[in-house]
Amino acid sequence: MTSFASSDIWLAFIMTLVAAISTFMGAMTSLYFRKVNQVTLSVILGFAAGIMIYTAFMKLMPDSISILSSQLSYAQTKITSTVWFFVGIVLLYPLGYLVKLWKKKEVERYDASLQYYRRVAILVLLTITAHSFVEGLATFLSFLATPLVAIPLVLSIIVHNFPEGMTIGALFNKISDSMNRRRAIFYSVIASLFEPIGALMAYIFILKYSNPVLTGILKAFLSGLLVATALNELIPNSQLKGNRKVSVQSIILGMFIMGVVLVSASIF
């Protein structure tokens, strides 16, 4: 394992913990709104979808291709990144099926609308949790490698983690009649903690068994998972009840904000 100063390792862990707090604070902000109406939900889901799509195509996939191209040929890089991108997309469907089976016992307890939103909430929670885990890996390793480069990366993660957390909170707020807030808070904590858990896994395993190809594959896979979640879950739900215009504007705004954040991070 590469040797690092203990102060650098602790600071890297602190960076991931701050990013986790951003996700949790976003969740608490929308979870404790008095009531999330459909327009508010449309804005939050559309904004989060814009962030996810832009992050997938303008950050994760380019990073994946860059990392893989340093280890593989041009053709191998394209094939590997493309295959794992679509593996990420396809995985959402069995996840959705498993969540549906898990929630099958609710058929008699809740109406169809509430069952639907509960399913969406769990799927989005799983996706954001996976995203947080990979971000924890990336933040920890990038900080140890080049701290000056990692600081703007962490700032960009903090900025987009907050609306992702708001998405979790808004969906749990929507289904608050069927789920007490204590359980919603517990789920939000779990999703947030996967950022430092990812850092811990990086410290225990990846620093010892570092593999750039695996890192590139993970980024391509996560890119596909984010795109599938945005297109299949967030955008359709943000456009319910005639809120298409609000949804599209929110998606564009999310992309724009994430674009500004990523460009600013690369400059400063």
Description:
There is one protein chain. By secondary structure, this protein is an all-alpha fold. It has one domain (15-265). Helix content is 84%, strand content 0%. It is built from eight helices and no strands. Helix 2 packs antiparallel against helix 3 (74-102), helix 2 (38-69) packs parallel to helix 8 and helix 3 (74-102) packs across helix 7 (212-238). The chain is globular and about 50 Å long. The chain starts with 5 loop residues before the first helix and ends with a helix. The mean pLDDT is 77.
Provide a short characterization of the protein structure.
With 268 residues, the protein is mostly helical. 84% of the residues lie in helices and 0% in strands.
The biggest beta sheet is recorded as: none
Number of strands: 0
Poorly predicted segments: none
What's the mean pLDDT score? 77
* Amino- and carboxy-terminal Cα gap: 31 Å
- SSE ordering: HHHHHHHH
User: Which range does the strand content fall in?
Assistant: under 5%
Count of separate structural domains: 1
Class based on secondary structure composition and strand pairing: mainly alpha
Write a concise keyword list for the protein shown above.
268 residues, mainly alpha, 0% strand, transmembrane helix, ZIP family metal transporter, transmembrane, membrane
